[in-house]
Design a protein that fits this description.
Blueprint (H helix, E strand, L loop, with lengths): L1 H24 L8 H13 L3 H5 L4 H16 L1 E17 L13 E15 L4 E16 L2 E4 L7
Antiparallel strand pairs: 1-2, 2-3, 3-4
Amino acid sequence: MKRIGYFLLAAILFTILVGGVNCQSKSQYTTATPEGTIRLFFDAYSSLDADKMVNLYVEEEREKIKPNTVAFLGRLQSIRFVALEIKTVSQIEYAEPVSVSGRIEDSAMVKASFKGVYSEKDGSPRHFPYQTVKFHLEKREGKWLILQPPPAV
């Protein structure tokens, strides 16, 4: 009888563990908020997924930044961001589209502070110091997208 009890307990713990792991692997962030977009950016960066990173930019920037993004990420074996803090420092959303020279979109500025550890393909780990970068975003068709690459990321 004790064996059945242990077996059931183990089965329940295994189910909880597997369910918890599956929930953790799914990103809870979306482009519906400026901070969500930047979290997705760092998730894609950590995954070395150039396509996901590039798709978080406004459409007119994507082709410009893709070659450098692919080349840079191709040199890395891994990257991990430590002490990542993301905060929206300004956000302007218009009730109706306002246009002077074609288009003025909802805009936001997000600061991301972090330090990181990365390894290039040669395997040697390297660190970069704690830093803060600013991301400028625009809301396009309901999605917050990055306007241009920030310096140092």
